[in-house]
Design a protein that fits this description.
The complex is a heterodimer of chains A (699) and B (182). In chain A, 41% of the residues lie in helices and 19% in strands. Chain A is α+β, with helices and mostly antiparallel strands and 699 residues long. In chain A, the strands form ten sheets. In chain A, strands 22-21-25-26-28 form a five-stranded antiparallel sheet. Chain A has a four-stranded antiparallel sheet with strand order 1-5-8-9. In chain A, strands 23-24-20-27 form a four-stranded mixed sheet, with no helix packed on it. In chain A, a hairpin with a 2-residue loop joins strand 15 and strand 16. In chain A, helix 2 crosses helix 3 and helix 10 packs across helix 15. The radius of gyration of chain A is 45 Å and the shape is elongated. Chain B has 182 residues and is mainly alpha-helical. Chain B folds into two domains: 96 residues, RNA polymerase sigma factor, region 2, helix turn helix motif (Rna Polymerase Sigma Factor, Chain: A); 74 residues, Arc Repressor Mutant, subunit A (Orthogonal Bundle). The longest helix of chain B has 28 residues. The radius of gyration of chain B is 19 Å and the shape is globular. The termini of chain B are far apart. The chains are: A alpha+beta (699), B mainly alpha (182). Chains A and B meet through helix 1, helix 3 and helix 12 of A and helix 2, helix 4, helix 7, helix 8 and helix 9 of B.
Chain lengths: 699, 182
């Protein structure tokens, strides 16, 4: 087979002039030597001519159709009326008698349209609408209740089966609403079966009293306004019964033309998408939001295996399958939906409620190829595509569903644009372009989040290091002060270097217990911030450094999302972050130092501030922070404490501000990630987080 | 529409519009065929065949119009109807023999072969025909044909195309043999 295929492709290339000069020459030499090849090439050449002709013939036949159509319905501009469900009596029996009189108000001719002397209640009760038309011309009639009839020229024939010319009287009676149906005494019965009616009408045509019938090859097109949509509506003929009623017989399926609606009013989202969003507290009416969220999922259809990095987690949101064949059934590609949900598809089968309904089932099947069947056959009747879908390899459940769609005999949109084939090409191009753009945006988005995360991680790391450094520095400086004071009280030389020995030589330098002891005691005291009470065993001199407790109670602490309490010691270059909980912050004050208190709180983005100098060991209650602008806070912090402290405090505060924003961003993306996981279950069928929706409409 | 505009439309691949304009001449042809022993169906067949020939001729580079396009079309129709009458062994009206013929420039035998090829395609069945038309005339790629016609893969469409083409060749050979023996 492979060899034959190659030969055919070679012949094609030759006939279409796609071979290079060298290849052509070689092929022609082969042709000269091989009579069988010559025959093959000649046959294929003829077939290609035949194909060209066949296509041309198609164009010619279309031109004929348009020619006939133009001639017949030059004035036919009544689009948008759905021929819809009805039970109608289109009575066109051949006449055998011609002894009839004209219809008059409340008066019936002696013979009915079939030439029989039989009338029923409905004939008597429904008023006749009489139209005089020229039988040689195409005519459109619209009745009082909105039935539209398109009558071709020479649609009527007389009893000898000759086409009728000249003036013809067309009589119509209609019963479209239940009230009229009932008061006219019309039944909705087909033998013993009850029918659900979509409207009934009666049509008769006469010329000078003579009964006419319709030429079967020039049928009259009738459109009945549909109040509701009912599948399986058929056209019945009315048979008058001797008891004065009509029995409806001989049903024929109707081809329903579809009504195009504004495509933006349709819902092409996956089932449960909008109401789930609403249930989760999102604004499902904000189409910009719902669109961008939904379309962003296109990424997964083009990058089946991806890792989404959010915060410190690597979240595998990929599909179970790696190969594109299996991804195919993972749900409908949002890029495709974005393409068809656009004004370009207005006035096609896509912009109809009927398609919207199919789409819901297509979402459950999740097969993009099935969706393509609809888009690639825009010029078909919707029901024909339904049948085509039903023949694909589906579960019997879905075969049944699509067969049921097909049984509705949904047609196409009236007044549809003839450029439907071109739209299919447009669709393909646009869907690819959207998919590429959406993927790019999507990957850029997550890449940016990753970048932001790593920047903020670095900042946080820096902040932590700064804090450690500050604590260490505070310790060093306070230790220095304590040590000197202890030495002074003990009568030691205070000019001595108080720096602790370098670690590498620490153990080797212990020579005097005095030094060592004081040092340890001071270190321990500074570290634990407890009062030093030391007696030198050699001199019996005492050293006392007092640490006394202080506490601060912040008023209305619960209203702050963040609250920081700092102490600024006068002799230290940095500040101390005071720890506490539930609005109460405690620390121990070194009697050798003087302290300032600074409190910074945040309610959302709004900073609050409190400052007090000369803090003593005591219990400070009801500390009231005041709302302050960010600039004012910066300037206040500049004035607080000494220069380095101010600088450090400013740094600390700017980190707080950054941290507030960053936590917000992280929260937003945590929310977004969770939302995406949830929505992912709706949009895709293969995501590892996918589970069957429980409220699944029985599909 | 002026003739030159019609010719330009056909040459630029907009035959549809040109055909719409040309179809208006149908009543004239119907009258001619009816007056020369044909019925309405004969008239339609002849007219449609003539339109195909006309478009194919205009698409050829060396085509020059020496009369009005409607006259040319009328000439082709006469020629075709005369051929048909001859084929049916029917008498050819006097004025048909005498009048100078338009559209003599094309090879009737070659056209007949092309018609046979078209017939072979017609007998193939709708799906085969659609596949071959899409591929050879529409220039649609096999991959897209597969998607459009519901084949599972491009390769399935390729094999299907091969089978259809072979079936068409076989049928064409048969038709040619029948034609030769007649």
């Amino acid at each position: 087979m492979r060899k034959e295929l190659e030969l055919i492709e070679k012949i094609e290339a030759y006939l279409q002039g796609r071979l290079s000069t060298a290849e052509t020459e070689q092929f022609e030499r082969q042709l000269a030597d091989d009579p069988q090849l010559r025959t093959e090439v000649e046959l294929q050449r003829q077939l290609m001519t035949g194909i060209q002709r066949a296509s041309l013939r198609g164009s010619v036949l279309k031109a004929k159709k348009r020619y006939v159509f133009r001639r017949q319905f030059l004035k036919w501009g009544l689009g948008g009326l759905g021929t819809a469900g009805l039970i109608a009596s289109l009575l066109y029996y051949q006449t055998s008698r011609n002894n009839v009189t004209l219809y008059e108000v409340n008066k019936l001719p002696a013979y009915n349209e079939a030439g029989e002397r039989q009338w029923v209640d409905a004939d008597r009760r429904l008023p006749a609408q009489t139209y005089l038309i020229n039988a040689s011309r195409d005519t459109v009639i619209e009745t009082k209740k909105g039935i539209v009839l398109a009558i071709s020229s020479r649609s009527f024939r007389d009893k000898d089966n000759h086409p009728v010319t000249g003036q013809v009287q067309v009589v119509l009676k209609e019963a479209l609403d239940p009230a009229t149906v009932m008061t006219a005494g019309l039944s909705t019965r087909s033998d013993t079966q009850m029918l659900s009616t979509g409207g009934m009408f009666f049509l008769d045509a006469r010329q000078q009293g003579h009964i006419l019938h319709i030429d079967t090859i020039r049928p009259i097109t009738v459109q009945i306004p549909a109040t509701e949509d009912r599948a399986g509506m058929q056209l019945y003929k009315g048979k008058r019964m001797s008891n004065g009623t009509i029995n409806w017989v001989d049903p024929h399926p109707l081809e329903r033309s579809l009504v195009s609606v504004d495509i933006q009013t349709l819902d092409f989202y996956p089932p449960h998408y909008l109401n789930s969003l609403q249930a989760w507290g999102y604004d499902s009416r904000d189409k910009r939001f719902t669109d961008s969220l939904y379309y962003s999922f296109s990424y997964f259809f083009h990058h089946p295996k991806i890792d989404m990095h959010i915060g410190n987690e690597d979240l595998d949101f990929g599909f179970l399958a790696n190969d594109s064949d299996r991804v195919k059934n993972c749900g409908l590609d949002p890029a495709k939906i974005k393409t068809i949900w656009s004004p370009e598809f207005q006035n096609t089968i896509i912009s109809t409620r009927e398609f919207e309904e199919r789409l819901r089932s297509l979402y459950y099947l999740g097969d993009n190829d099935l969706l393509d069947l609809y888009i690639n056959h825009l010029d078909w009747n919707l029901s024909d595509i339904d049948s085509l879908v039903a023949t694909q390899s589906l579960s019997s459940h879905y075969k049944h569903i699509f067969q049921a769609f097909a049984d509705r005999h949904d047609g196409k949109v009236g007044n549809a644009s003839p450029q439907l084939r071109q739209l299919a090409v447009y669709y393909k191009m646009k869907a690819q372009a959207y998919a590429a753009a959406l993927s790019k945006t999507e990957s850029d988005f997550w890449a940016r989040q990753k970048e932001l995360d790593s920047t903020s991680d670095a900042k946080r790391q820096q902040h932590q290091e700064d804090s450690f450094r500050r604590v260490a520095q505070n310790f060093r400086q306070e230790f220095d002060i304590n040590f000197k004071e202890a030495c002074r009280q003990l009568g030691y030389d205070t000019t001595i270097n108080s720096l602790p020995p370098a670690q590498s030589v620490y153990t080797a330098t212990i020579t005097t217990t005095g030094w060592c002891n004081i040092d340890r005691a001071v270190t321990a005291s500074t570290l634990t911030r407890t009062t030093l009470d030391y007696t030198d065993s050699a001199t019996m001199k005492k050293a006392v450094i007092r640490y006394l407790p202080v506490s601060f109670q912040i008023a209305d602490w619960k209203s702050f999302s963040r609250l920081y309490v700092y102490l600024l010691p006068d002799k230290l270059s940095s500040f101390m972050l005071v720890s506490g909980s539930e609005g109460t912050y405690t620390e121990k004050l070194n009697q050798l130092l003087k302290y300032d208190l600074v409190c910074i709180g945040y309610k959302g983005d709004q900073p609050w501030y409190y400052h007090q100098g000369d803090i003593r060991p005591a219990v400070y209650t009801n500390i009231q922070l005041k709302s302050i602008s960010a600039e004012e806070l910066a300037s206040q912090l500049n004035q607080a404490g000494n220069l380095t402290q101010a600088d450090e405090l400013r740094k600390e505060n700017s980190f707080s501000e950054f941290d507030i924003q960053d936590q917000k961003r992280r929260k937003r993306f945590k929310d977004l990630r969770e939302l995406r996981i949830r929505v992912g279950r709706i949009v895709t069928r293969c995501g590892i987080y996918y589970s069957t929706p429980t409220d699944d409409e029985g599909y | 529409m002026p003739d030159q505009q019609l010719i330009d439309l056909i040459r630029t691949g907009h035959s549809d519009k040109a055909l719409d304009a040309l179809y208006r001449h149908f009543p004239m042809i119907r009258k001619m065929v009816r007056s020369a022993g044909g019925n309405a169906a004969d008239a339609e067949d002849t007219f449609q065949e003539a339109l195909i020939l006309l478009v194919r001729n205009i698409q050829q580079r060396n085509f020059t119009l020496t009369s009005k396009l409607s006259t040319y079309l009328y000439g082709i129709c006469r020629l075709l109807w005369k051929e048909e009458l001859r084929r049916r062994n029917k008498p050819i009206p006097h004025e048909f023999i005498q009048s100078p013929e338009e559209g003599q420039t094309f090879d009737m035998e070659k056209e007949y072969q092309a018609r046979l090829a078209e017939k072979a395609l017609d007998e193939l069945g709708e799906r085969c025909r659609e596949l071959l038309l899409l591929f050879y005339h529409g220039g649609v790629k096999l991959k897209d044909i597969a998607a459009r016609m519901g084949y599972s893969a491009e390769n399935t469409a390729r094999n299907q195309k091969y089978k259809c083409l072979e079936a068409a060749k076989l049928r064409l050979k048969q038709l040619q043999q029948i034609h030769q023996t007649l």
